[in-house]
Design goal:
Radius of gyration: 17 Å
Strand order of the largest sheet: 1-2-3
Shape: elongated
Helix content: under 10%
Largest sheet: 3 strands, antiparallel
Number of helices: 0
Strand content: 25-35%
Distance between the termini: 41 Å
């Protein structure tokens, strides 16, 4: 994993088409903006569909 430090208004480029901008830092919260092609899915991890977990059988 690459870990970078950025200040407000600073950007990170991912390839040719994705730009991540630090919008605001307040306490432990960071607000970011993501510019990506409209055909690319950008999804917060907690909204990602989870694979069905196997159920445990009782012995």
């Amino acid at each position: 994993m690459l870990v970078l430090s950025r200040r407000e208004s600073e950007r990170i480029r991912l390839g040719d088409e994705i730009v991540v901008t630090v919008i605001r830092v307040a306490g432990e919260s960071v607000r970011i903006g993501i510019e990506a092609p409209s055909d690319m899915l950008v999804l917060r991890e907690e909204l990602e569909p989870r694979a069905a977990q196997p159920t445990r059988r009782k012995p």
